[in-house]
Amino acid sequence: MPTPNKGEKQKDFMARCMGSDEMKRNYPDSKQRYAVCNSKWEQKHALMMKYLRMCGWTEYSIQQLIDYMENGEY
Fold first, then answer.
1. Which of helix, strand or coil describes residue 72?
2. H-helix or E-strand containing 39?
3. Which of 9, 33, 46, 73 is the most buried (most CB within 10 A)?
4. Looking at the 3D structure of the chain, how many domains does it have?
5. 62 domain residue, yes or no
6. 3-class secondary structure, 65
7. What distance in Å separates the CA atoms of residue 11 and residue 25, rounded to the nearest whole number?
8. What is the DSSP letter of 5?
């Protein structure tokens, strides 16, 4: 099962995960496959996202931070 690579953007991971032969075989329904791939992505950032939500960050701000970190701009 695909997992996010260091520095990989969410859209790139989702495309790779959704197109994986293993994922297509295990999850032929694209909606279910999307949910599993998205869950894998969120697990990668779960602790940080939980903390930021508790601090009042919006989902948009959190995604901006993740994008910033994954682009190596910090």
1. coil
2. helix 30-44
3. 33
4. 1
5. yes
6. helix
7. 21
8. P
